[in-house]
Predict the 3D structure of the following.
Amino acid sequence: MTATVKGVGVSRGIAIGEAYVYRREQADVSQRFIRKSQHEKEIARFKKALKQAGKQLRDIKDQIAQNTPVDILAFIDTHLLMLEDPAFRDGTIQNIRTLSCNAEWALHKQGERLLQVFDDMDDPYLKTRRDDVLYVLQRIQNCLTNTPETQLDASKLAKHIIVADDLTPADTILIGHNNVAGFVTQYGTPLSHTAILASNLGIPAIVGAPDVCQQIKTGDMLILDGYDGVVHINPDDASLAHFRSLIRSESKRRAELKKLKGQPCVTLDKKPITLHANIDSPADIKQINKYDTTGVGLFRTEMLFIDQNQWPSEQQQFKFYKSALSKLKGMPLTIRTSDLGADKELQDTIDHGPMAHNPAMGLRAIRRCLKEPDLLTPQIRAILRASAFGPVLMMIPMLTNIEELDEVLQHVEQCKQQLRDSKVAFDESLPVGAMIEVPAAALAADAFASKLDFLSIGTNDLIQYCLALDRVDDEVNHLFNPLHPAVLQLIKMVIDAGKFAGIPVSLCGEMASDPKYTRLLLGMGLTYFSVQPNALLEIKHIINNSKINSLRPRVRKILQLYRADEIEQQVRKLNA
Ligand code: PEP
Ligand code: MG
């Protein structure tokens, strides 16, 4: 039987190729006692290493090609900022003095303290920043110990599958430019920089594969299955043949899909369907014209600013939204107000005291904005002001009850009046809508629909709250099931409420981007999908090859089932 290693697939696709195992040289750090008279000399040596590490990072940034994703540049900037952070600098200098030890040991002890802070965090996004701290610590240690920086050998990359403990931004840039077949890393989570890069580059990739560097040798033949997150090591001929045929049909399908670019999105029985993109990063906005979309159905504003230490001012947001609109060239932009909290948090909240015991249930999204109007008011004003420059919709996340909605609408009205008073232009009829992602809101969807211009179903959270499982907890991820009959009932209620009120209802959670659910959703009456940019063509292909009239009665029967496994079976038949 072929040996396998399992991790988390973070970029869909299959790669076959020889392994190139890449281990980074680790600096050898040991403790040395020094005399008091040597303290200043040791501190100077540490400061010199900090400078050297900064120069290396700036050199990497300078060498980066123009078309490098903005996210990667942001990672390097984050590392540069860390080098200046007192947490690294002052703590280490203090250790040199109080422990009377060499700079390497002082930094090592300070690093242990910093990493422990991240290990103790509940917030999964912030936990991923531990990788960045470790990376910066290692870089300074290498400078202190004169350990040469190991680099991927660019000449060995083409068509290879890279196997590494983790990849630095510099490594990933090389990977992006050298025709790498795929990569698998021991560390990293779906939210880590490695994962973000993989999906940006469209390279099949797996992260979080335990001991992968021990189990695989350079030269081993590998199959990397980014769909299931499995690496097959030295597979037999039958497996190779099976996966080769999958790759062939995948590339044929991709070529076919490209032909759909610019074509209308309409079912076989001539029902037009709206297909928009979800936008999560400045890089997505930059590339918006490359995507086959007619608008943005979800603009996750908090993701744009998440690496910063502060929420941006009204003017900064206004400029950003306005420039996004100019790139969209008349296409609608649905701007979601801040969804900060739980899985999405600003960096500066590291210092904000103890984390909520259960952040997903806590002060996140609109709850937090209503408690902190300084967060909400500038954003509403920025969105309104941007609406003078193109079609904008405002979307409110995580509403749970109508009182909250009334409060938000009051804020919107106040902001409008302020702008009128100061003769600032905005769209008087700017549509305001709600994300329906809390079961209570889905059950009360009629009431929300009666007061709003549109609804959008956020299945990522709706499923989390309906099934009582943390969407970022690996231990319960296997229970996350969009086909749970209760989830389907909630989605159906929202679609029907929108129809009754005569307002559009979109679905912008990951469920909309998964081709497995497209026909089911069409049969449930959904006519507006907002999906990940890389899923646009695939979803359009399914829509254009579906007949709503024949799906409807079959889906009606599916919705009467009360076992998820039976529903799954019937959905498979629907897709056959
Ligand atoms: C959702 O919850 O489905 C959604 C789209 O919002 P987010 O994933 O940003 O919470
Ligand atoms: Mg959500």
